[in-house]
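Changelog-adjacent note: as of this version, every example in the card shows the full chain rather than a window. The one below runs 286 residues end to end.
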Amino acid sequence: MIIDKIMEISRRSKARVAIGIGDRRAEEIARVARSCMNTGVAADVLLVGGKDVHVPAGGRGKGRDIDIDIDIPVITSEYPERTLIRMLVDGDVDGVVRGSLGASAFLKDVRARYGRVNRIALLEAKGHQFFFAPVGIDEGWTVEEKFRIIDGGRELMERFGIKPNVAILSGGRAGDIGRNEYVDRTIADAGALISMCRARGIDASYHEILIEDTVGSNFVLAPDGVSGNLVYRTLVHLGNGQAYGAPYIGLGLKDDDVIVDTSRAGSAEEYMGAIAFASALAGMVR
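Full-length structure tokens:
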């Protein structure tokens, strides 16, 4: 399983990771952070939250909206999203995870530092693990950006010794051309992407709108960020699927910075997977 390989690498990296805590899942994230340290998934995990998190002497914190009832380092800030990025840039930690902080504010601060970026999620359904993108509503709306996602995903997967097998989706079948302008565009985009992948030696296949036929591929590309976000939410929150975090790609290898996204409503497994992802990737670039 892909996540097992990531966990194995993370235990060797001995990385220091910071994860954000918002107004949801704070106590659960704290327990996951402690578990990650106890099992060696990360050498150290710090929590970063807003001013409503209070940590009195003894390491037990209680705030107006957020309770942290576990002995673990907590850093509070008026702008925790900005603090996470600053800690990474300044070298205080080796990688950061969004945790349960709000997506819009976090994305704003990531893009202020790195410019346009994308995410690729590791998902699981019926025992099959695969990478999936785009997952942000404003990502993957042009052929060029979708190919950057594919190429960035390829580079990420190859770091873990995984050969990509990309399944490209569109908004309809070939026989649907002419019924809707948007569908026509996604079909044309898919054709262009297949050609671009072949030119770069990337193993890719076109599956029209038949997402059910992508089982067996280890990287699935949705037609755009909205459909991708809906697929992600349906699978994880309604379909008994599992997410393990979504690393940012396109940060620039020169920076060697590691950022992993998560859902505010993520499970303990998602937060642990994201911390492991950050730890493993940080170990590769240190």
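Structural remarks: The domain at 120-243 is CATH 3.40.50.10750 (Rossmann fold).
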